[in-house]
Design goal:
11 helices, eight-stranded mixed beta sheet, FAD/NAD(P)-binding domain, 419 residues, alpha+beta, D-Amino Acid Oxidase, Chain A, domain 2, binds flavin-adenine dinucleotide, nine-stranded mixed beta sheet
C-alpha cells in the first residue's frame, strides 16, 4: 500500500520570533523534487496589538544570531532597525568593580545588535510571504494532537471551525505557556523570580556611543541598550510589588528614580517613552523531545532577560534544528526519525543548560543582599575584568559563540554543496 500523503512535512505551532524564524530557516530546504512543505499555526495576527512576540520591545541580538540571520539572507531586512553594540559595561550600584568588553579587543564588528522585535518579525513575515511552500494559518490554535509511529495529527481551531492536519514532524514554538507542550504531556519546572521587567525607551543627555550598560541594583538588574536616534532601550527589573507604582509615576519622577539607580554615566536622563511591564520567571520543560515532536524557544526554556539571552538561545535552537533536518533530507531519511531528533536534543542540551546556569547565576548572585556575597561579586567583577581568559569566556558566552556552533552561525548555507 502506498504511504499516505501527509498534509505537511513540518507543522510549527507558534509563529512568534522563534517559530517564524524556524520557518524562514527551513523554507529553502529541498525534500526530493520539491521544497519542504511547512505550516505555521499562529494564534494572534502579526500586527495585532495583542501579539505577544512582536511588540515595541527592543532586544539584544548576539553575534551568533546576527551571523545566522546573515547566512539566511535575513539580515539585510533587519539592518536598518539594528544598532550595533560596540562595548558592554557591567557594574554594581554603590560598589567598586566593573567589567568592560569591547568588540575591537575581540576582533568582531560588534558584540551584538539591538533591534525592535516588531522589525525582526516584519523581516520574517516578508520571507514567509515570498515562499509558496510555507503556509501561515492565522488566527488558529492547536487544540489536540495524536502521535503515531510515522506521523503526527493535530487538530486546530479557527474561529468556530475545527480541522485536522498531519505532518512528519511537529515543532512546538508556542511560547512559555505552550499548549503543544501540555498536549504532549511534558511538565515544566518554573521558578518565579518575584520580579517584573519594566521596559521603555529613554533619551539621555549624553551620546550612548554604542555602549550597552548592565547595572546591578538592590532591586535587580537594569540594562540600558544603545538604540537609534541616540535613545536607549531600558530593561529594568523591579520587585512585583513595585511595578504598579513605577508605571504610575510621572515621567519626571520615574526618570529621577532611574537616574538615582543608574548613575550619571549618560548624563541626565531627559525623556522616557511609553512604559510597559513583563513578569519574569524561569520556566523549563522537563523534556524537549517526544516522538515526532520537538520543543524550541520559550516553549522549551523561558529565561530572565538579565543577560539578553532568551531569543538568542532560541535562534541557536532554530539553526541546530534546521541543520538536523537538512542532514536527514540529504540522506533521504524521514525528518521526524528518532535518531536525528535525539542528536538534536543532545547537541542543544549543553548550550541550554549553560545559558540557564549563566542567567540564573547572575540573577541570584546580584540579587543577594548579604555583605559577603556583595564583596565576592565585586571581587568577581574585578577578577573578570583583569583576567583575560575569564573575560574572553564571558565574551564568548555573551556573543553566543561558546560550544559547538551550527553551520548557519559559521556562514555556511544549509543547501550549499558539501555543507
Ligand atoms: C522584557 C524582556 C526583554 C527581553 N530581552 C531580550 C534580549 O535582549 N535578548 C534576547 O535574546 N531575548 C530577550 N527576551 C526574550 C525573548 O523575548 C523571548 O525569548 C522570545 O520572545 C521567545 O520567542 P518564542 O517565539 O519562543 O515565544 P513567544 O514570543 O512567546 O511566541 C510564541 C507565539 O506562539 C503563539 N501561540 C501561543 N499559544 C498558541 C497556540 N495554542 N496555538 C498557536 N499559536 C500559539 C503566540 O501568539 C506567539 O506568537 C526578552 C524578554 C522580555 C520579557
Amino acid at each position: 500500500m502506498p504511504a499516505r500523503q501527509l498534509d505537511y512535512d513540518i507543522i510549527i505551532v507558534g509563529g512568534g520570533l522563534v517559530g517564524a524564524g524556524l520557518a524562514c530557516a527551513l523554507a529553502d530546504l529541498q525534500s526530493g523534487d520539491s521544497k519542504l512543505r511547512i505550516a505555521i499555526i499562529e494564534a494572534v495576527p502579526f500586527r495585532d496589538a495583542a501579539q505577544p512576540s512582536y511588540d515595541d520591545r527592543n532586544i539584544a541580538l548576539s553575534q551568533a544570531s546576527y551571523r545566522i540571520f546573515q547566512t539566511l539572507g535575513l539580515w539585510q531586512d533587519m539592518i536598518d532597525a539594528a544598532t550595533p553594540i560596540e562595548s558592554i559595561y557591567v557594574s554594581n550600584r554603590g560598589h567598586f568593580g566593573a567589567v568592560r568588553l569591547h568588540a575591537k579587543d575581540l576582533g568582531v564588528n560588534a558584540l551584538g545588535f539591538v533591534a525592535q522585535t516588531r522589525a525582526i518579525g516584519a523581516a520574517f513575515k516578508r520571507r514567509i510571504e515570498q515562499r509558496d511552500n510555507v503556509k501561515l494559518i492565522c488566527p488558529a490554535s492547536i487544540t489536540a494532537l495524536e502521535i503515531h509511529n510515522d506521523h503526527a495529527d493535530i487538530t486546530l481551531k479557527q474561529g468556530q471551525h475545527c480541522s485536522r492536519l498531519s505532518c512528519s514532524l511537529l515543532v512546538g514554538a508556542d511560547g512559555a505557556k505552550s499548549k503543544t507542550r501540555e498536549l504532549l504531556g511534558i511538565a515544566t519546572q518554573t521558578h518565579d523570580h518575584g520580579q517584573s521587567a519594566i521596559v521603555a525607551n529613554i533619551t539621555p543627555q549624553k551620546p550612548h556611543n554604542n555602549i550597552a550598560y548592565e547595572r546591578f541594583t538592590d532591586s535587580g538588574p537594569l540594562a540600558l541598550l544603545p538604540m537609534s536616534e541616540q535613545r536607549c532601550a531600558l530593561v529594568y527589573s523591579v520587585w512585583h510589588n513595585e511595578v504598579e507604582g513605577m508605571l504610575n509615576l510621572s515621567d519626571e519622577a520615574f526618570l529621577a528614580q532611574l537616574s538615582e539607580r543608574f548613575g550619571d554615566r549618560l548624563g541626565k536622563l531627559v525623556k522616557v517613552g511609553q512604559r510597559s511591564s513583563y513578569p519574569l520567571a524561569l520556566s523549563r520543560a522537563d523534556r524537549t523531545l517526544a516522538k515526532r515532536a520537538v520543543l524550541i524557544g520559550n516553549a522549551a526554556h523561558s529565561l530572565h532577560p538579565v543577560a539578553g539571552q532568551g531569543f538568542n538561545l532560541g535562534v541557536r535552537d532554530i539553526a541546530a534544528l534546521a541543520e538536523t533536518i537538512s542532514d536527514a533530507l540529504k540522506e533521504n531519511l524521514d525528518i521526524g526519525n528518532d535518531a536525528s531528533l535525539g542528536t538534536f536534543r543532545r547537541w542543544r542540551r549543553g548550550d541550554q543548560q549553560r545559558i540557564i546556569n549563566f542567567t540564573e547565576g547572575l540573577v541570584s548572585v546580584f540579587s543577594n543582599p548579604l555583605a559577603a556575597v556583595s564583596l565576592l561579586r565585586n571581587l568577581g567583577l574585578v577578577a573578570v575584568d583583569l583576567f583575560p581568559p575569564v573575560k574572553r569566556l564571558l565574551a564568548r558566552q555573551t556573543m553566543g559563540i561558546a560550544g559547538k556552533q551550527p553551520r548557519l552561525a559559521r556562514g555556511i548555507a544549509l543547501n550549499s554543496e558539501g555543507s
